[in-house]
């Protein structure tokens, strides 16, 4: 099986390469491969289109990057080289248009994660970075039909560029010794604990990509605090798994759910 991963954007200094000079998502792919989740699966990486020079990840940026993501989905779905497309990023740029135009299965990160969280539990909380990201995530979850299972969207009030500058340029061992990274883990643990104790979350979804770099450390801290029963879902991993499921079951996004004028069997009414 061959997948193409499309990033939401490129251009920001901290958002391009990891400590080894590879696209940042490669470390998450390596983690999945180490866990045995990618047997027989190849994943190519497209880092995404260039975005305006802006640190905020809000609706303004979402509008800009959606165009680039849509065009990349159109391009890759027409190549006949890939079995499915995986889009990463909590903003879900180009979600509806992408599902309409793609000729092959396309999986989005948050969308996949909330479906998995709903499958295994009753109340999930999303851990993200900033207030705009949290607002967009909540809006998307409600649009996807899972608002009744969303316990909360909790944030660390740290931009993806700020966090990326701490994580992407360091190896895992170097990150473990960095007091700033440990401060981020402390803040993440405080938000997870609040979601569990105050909002009765049974599952934590880890949102923005730099946070997913710390999935194993968050898991370890939850276990040490006695929350071993709390489930953790990484958005990118969920999207990769969802893409594999669609390919293996020979299904893709239903044209009637995302119709265009070319739809042949038009419903009588909506």
CA-to-CA gap between the ends?
Answer: 36 Å
The CATH architecture category equals: 3-Layer(aba) Sandwich
Low-confidence stretches: none
Name the helicity range. Answer: 40-55%
Radius of gyration: 18 Å
Mean pLDDT: 92
- What number of domains? 1
Largest sheet: spatial strand order: 2-1-3-4
Instruction: Kindly state the number of beta strands.
Output: 8
Order of SSEs: EHEHEHEHEHEHHHEHHEH
* Biggest pleated-sheet summary: 4 strands, parallel
- What form results from the Cα inertia axes? globular
Structural class: alpha/beta
CATH class categorisation: Alpha Beta
Number of helical segments with 4 or more residues: 11
Which fold name fills CATH's third level, the topology? Rossmann fold
Assess the beta-strand content as a share of residues.
5-15%
What would the keywords be for this entry?
four-stranded parallel β-sheet, Rossmann fold, alpha/beta, 11 helices, 270 residues, 46% helix
Describe, in plain words, how this protein is organized in 3D.
- The protein has a single domain, classed as 3-Layer(aba) Sandwich (Rossmann fold), CATH 3.40.50.12500.
- The protein has 270 residues and is α/β, with parallel strands linked by helices.
- 46% of the residues lie in helices and 13% in strands.
- The mean pLDDT is 92.
